[in-house]
Design brief:
- By secondary structure, this protein is of the alpha+beta class.
- Helices cover 33% and strands 13% of the residues.
- It has 14 helices and ten strands.
- The strands form four sheets. It has a four-stranded antiparallel beta sheet with strand order 3-4-6-5, covered by helices on one side. It has a two-stranded antiparallel sheet with strand order 1-2. Strands 7-8 form a two-stranded antiparallel ribbon.
- The longest helix is centred in the C-terminal third of the chain and has 25 residues, at 362-386.
Length: 442
């Protein structure tokens, strides 16, 4: 009996009766609440559920069979599904979403400040404004204790008044008139201007006289006056006269002290003023060296070349500060410019490593001239960047703080090159120098 009962239970577990929905409705199955309450169900340990319908006959011939699939197949399917996913072996920690903090209302003072980058052009404009507020640049402050030489160092030669010899003037006048008449040249007027060493005779020729005819008589007039040499200026610029310069028998010494102490020299606005001497009308002859950068002083022995050279150097030393001017002295004879060795620390420029500031060796002269040419090219580059035509305009811009020293600009002093015995230097070292000596700018 027990076996039969077990077999009935197993059959009940494996089968379930489904009513025929075509002949009966769902409501017909549960019309009786009492019958519905009699329906029972059984749940087994393996999870299967069996619904029993007692006292009811099956109303159909269909049977539903529920088969249990093995666990191995289920696990294999799960593995195949998970193999398609790229899941790391390490466990993934899922964090809860962060809660947003409520933004607190801030006052105007607590607002964030947005800083904007200022363009470089504005920064340069600010730098220019700062530079404009600075006082003008003063180059003499680098050597503020420097004292200019005093005029008491120079000697005074006599009264320096021009001596006029009336007899000499009258004799020269008669000789000039007589010589011109010998060649059928008449004059209407003659006047004389006495200078320290030369007297200028101005004549007005008669109408119809050619000027070239008077100029060709230069040697004849000099012979008749028994003079060392005369000079005919035909015509004198700005005047309607012809000039004849005749040396004086008694010459007056022109001292350097009288020229440097004159008002014309003290109050001039030249960049490099030099006092050469006095004119025939006894006026001081003071010019600017920058207006004649190539100055050649020539003459025979004893004509005053060395005196003129020393006059130029002394004029510059009395007028310019060491920060404004530098000298480069070349003296192959070793005696002409040696007196200026005492100003080596202030005014003389030389190459690095050189012992003597005054150059006497022709081999070193070549290196010095080449270095000056390089310096000249560098200065031209600075002038180009500054938009200046000469060193004077460049220095004026630098003094007014219109040039930035951080870009290589600086105050440029004048450089004056003095060469004694220039002809000998051309013969020995002229071809070795990279720059042509006659075209070099001081």
């Amino acid at each position: 009996m027990e076996a039969k009962a077990n077999s009935n239970e197993e059959s009940n577990l494996e089968t379930a009766v489904i009513p025929d929905t075509e002949k009966t409705s769902v409501n017909d199955l549960y019309t009786n609440k009492e019958d519905a309450g009699k329906k029972s169900s059984s749940v087994f340990a393996d999870g299967s559920v069996v619904i029993n319908f007692p006292d009811e006959e099956p109303m159909h011939d269909f049977k539903m069979i529920e088969k249990d699939e093995p666990e191995e197949d289920i696990q294999q399917e799960v593995k195949n599904d998970t193999a398609d996913l790229d899941i790391d072996d390490e466990p993934v920690e899922i964090l809860p979403p962060a809660k947003e903090k409520p933004v607190a209302k801030t006052s105007d003072d607590a607002l964030e400040l947005e800083i904007k980058v200022v363009p470089d052009e504005l920064e340069e404009e600010e730098e220019d404004k700062v530079v404009e507020n600075l006082p003008p640049y003063e180059p003499t402050l680098d050597l503020r204790d420097y004292k200019y030489p005093q005029l008491t160092l120079l000697e005074a030669h006599g009264s320096e008044k021009i001596i006029q010899d009336t007899n000499e003037l009258q004799n020269n006048k008669n000789q000039i008139i007589e010589t011109l008449r010998n060649y059928s040249i008449e004059i209407q007027k003659i006047s004389a201007t006495v200078g320290p060493t030369v007297t200028l005779y101005e004549i007005v020729p008669a109408p119809g006289v050619r000027i070239s005819k008077i100029k060709n008589l230069e040697d004849d007039i000099a012979l008749s006056l028994a003079a060392l040499g005369i000079r005919i200026i035909a015509p004198i610029p700005g005047k309607g006269t012809i000039g004849i310069e005749v040396p004086n028998v008694r010459k007056t010494i022109v001292s350097m002290k009288s020229m440097l102490s004159s008002e014309k020299f003290q109050n001039n606005k030249y960049s490099l003023p030099i006092a050469i001497g006095k004119k025939i009308d006894n006026e001081n002859f003071i010019v600017d060296l920058t207006s004649m950068p190539h100055l050649l002083m020539a003459g025979a022995t004893g004509q005053g070349k060395s005196v003129g050279l020393n006059a130029i150097l002394v004029s510059l030393l009395y007028k310019k500060h060491p920060s404004h001017l530098k000298f480069v002295l070349i003296d192959p004879k070793k005696v002409e410019l040696s007196v200026y060795r005492h100003i080596e620390k202030h005014f003389l420029a030389k190459l690095p490593g050189e012992e003597d500031a005054i150059i006497t060796d022709t081999k070193k002269v070549v290196h010095t001239l080449n270095a000056l040419c390089i310096e000249m090219d560098n200065r031209y580059d600075l002038l180009k960047e500054a938009g200046a035509r000469n060193i004077k305009e460049y220095n004026e811009k630098f003094i007014k703080r219109r040039l930035n020293p951080q870009k290589g600009h600086q105050y440029l002093p004048f450089i004056v090159l003095v060469i004694d015995e220039f002809a000998d230097l051309i013969m020995t070292a002229g071809k070795k120098s990279k720059c042509r000596l006659p075209d070099w700018h001081s």
